[in-house]
Structures
1.
Amino acid sequence: AVFSMLSEYFFTFRNMMNLLMYSSVLGICACGFTLVVLAGSLDLSANTLSALAAVYTARVLQVTGQWWLGLIVGVAIGVVGGCINGFLITKVRINPLITTLGTMSIFKGIAFLENNGVTIPVYDTAFKTMGQGYLFGSIPNIVLIWLAVVIVIFVMLKYTRFGREVYSVGGNAQASYLSGISVKATRFKIYLTCSTCAGIAGVMYASLNGSGAPGANENIVLESVSAIILGGAALAGGRGTVIGSVLGVLVLGTITNGLTLLNVNSF
């Protein structure tokens, strides 16, 4: 309401689409991160894992010229990262914060080593269409991809056994274990899902910005947590929804978009 009064361009269809478009990468990552918060934990490695996915997606595109192969590699990096985090946390029993703090540094190092810290450009038009293209000339493709991720996570949390287990483990892990729930398996799946979403976010970043940058999505973990908490989730776990997380992302996106339209200094 405030921004629409201060700027005549704010409450227009084109600007609303821009708001959604540039909130999508954070939104995709926040969807997966919601599961981690619901379980009463954190994943500090999501930002560098998404950057790693962006870098190697761009590298594969540069070498092979096959957009679909770059897409697969980027998402696969997210899956592998989730397996590593899940294994260390559930099998080796390292504290989640210590685990993801360590893997955060490892993923960041690999991302910077790939091209000596230099951003890798993406020229493939078909690949960039995912992030920069529009359906019917007005609806950004990346927003539809974000919507698809939201629907998958929503169905997963609301209508599957795994979703009920996520809430249960976040509410009381010991009671969940005594009730017959495999807490370790649930936590493994949670970190796998979160990292997969981080990988998808990295691929979408490369498509939207036309490059794979080792410093991409640097603040996405803090922004995801902020959005999820704004959406009504509890940091202690057991309470929250992916729809609430989407609303939280839109709150942050609205603030950024409105300040940009008002020409407020970015610093």
2.
Amino acid sequence: MLPLNQVSLPCNLEYSLPKNDPVFTLVELCNQLDYTKLYRSYIRHWRKYSPTILFKIIVYGYMRRIYSSRQLEEACNRDICFMWLLQDEPAPDHSTIARFQDERLAYAMEDLFYQLIIKLHELGEVKFENMFVDGTKIEANANRYTFVWAKAVKKNMDKLTTKTEMLFSSLCDIYAVDCDTPEELYENLVLRASELNIEFVYGRGKRKNQLQRDIENLGELLERKYKYIDYLDKLGHRNSFSKTDVDATFMRMKDDHMMNGQLKPGYNAQIGVESEYIIGVGLFPNPTDVQTLIPFLNRVQTGIKRKIANVIADAGYESEENYTYLAENNQGCYIKPQNYEISKKRKYKNNKFRVEHMEYDKDNDYYTCAYGKRLEYRYDIKSKSANGYTIIKKVYANESCEGCPYQGQCHKSKRGYRSIKISQIFMEQRKRSRENIMSDIGIILRKNRSIQVEGAFGVIKEDYGFRRFLMRGRMKTELQFFLITFAYDIKKYFNRKNTDRLNKDLF
């Protein structure tokens, strides 16, 4: 006989679960994955909990907006769906869940994610034909006021170097020593203090020896030098980082509640979407999207072990480097040109002084301005992108603009002549991309990009409430973003299956 008020549960919990609960879809898809890499990271011979069960619990928690390990522990003790996933095993505590994520799952999560994408491909849901790419800023789990700026570090480093050289030269003369570096001088002075049996004193009312003061001053400068060197090493090519999450960069977020352009530590989260599923994920420290496309595509195509046929992106990804990469890999390019919207306006079309509206003589390599003067080729300007791509721009100029009635409208240069810098390769690539997005299929893909990839970010940020990472460091934040996108894809497959929308690629 049961005690009063005690709840009895049936032996088979599956009978009490809602028949249309996504937990069944989760188990159905996850049971088809290969967990060899996960078990390889779980090297203990004995395990209190199965890694596959812990993985399913964490993913199902993300599907239910439960991200905290403590909340997952509570759900395992109270929620019947989590109890069913445990398969009669005892509920894990929060520390077990947290350690499993940080020390085990982090090394296998990307592999499991792309296994799911390949499984969706086998089910006919994903065809790897049209990938819609976009990015958004997600705030890091870092203090907003622990910033380190590259310009400030370099400026202070220069001042410190000057100050250290002056002190170094002065101390070498005072103590009559011949040293090559401040570090060598510091060791020499410390050795001298030891030989003279000078006892270092500290605190109020204690008078320091001059040698002790010189050693401390030089040591303080060297300590600051090592700190700045460490900062520069952590910065790399970035302009800032946070002390509480070194991998996070300060960026402008869209949710600027104070409307003052405040910079917050965060990551540039990139996703690729096809048929409403997120098929590629990446976190980058770059605030802008233009430098992320090539490494993102390389990573996605390595994960899925095949090439994407067409890439569709907005104007933030337009560059000669990206155009060239897609052309060399024989991939369809549907990148919106940055001047696409403004080029539709009457003011742009009637502006005869723009480079796009000048006549170009290909045989003799010169442009003709609105007044009929030739802008002839002068020299090349070479520059390199952050990824090492060389961009060559040609400079064209005329002899003089004297007597031209359009001089004030055409240019505002005080040099007395008009000059233009132009990459003809880029202009041709932009023209082809514009033709692509204005074709019949291009219009459909452009509309789907705003629906599918923007819709995915809307679900993650609004429906899942995922606006700030809970972990620190790029490896752990990527783990969390892979988990949220893995849960998103499971839920998306469940919804499409229930609403009879399977195998529908485009709206």
3.
Amino acid sequence: MYMNKQHLTFSLMSYCIKKRMYSHPNEAIKILRKFIAHKKRACPNCACLGIPHKHSTDKRGIIIYKCYHCNKTFSELFGTIFHRSKIPLAKWLIAIIEWQDSTGSISASELSRKINLSSPSSWSMLMKIRKILHNSLDNS
């Protein structure tokens, strides 16, 4: 099987991220911050584009911001599929990589075995991943 340089690079990168998630699951938020760091943070309550200040950090390491304008708080994961999820971020990232690495698609039961999660939870994760990718392809 022939693999081009870009595919090989992405495969090595996903393997390194997956290996890192298994050994250090608290690193997931740092990896996610690299992808969302360039986005401007707007308050979801009042849509103020002012720079919010860091209010606190929860036990998972996720930053909670507080808006200067309306004094309400919001998470740095607001607007993502990870927002208000009880599933650890490391398992989310591993699930996305497993879904991407599968040739056709991955079943919920196969994913649940790989990430040690219940089958309904893995099915819900896969549906969220598919929905967000479908919406992003429709908008392009």
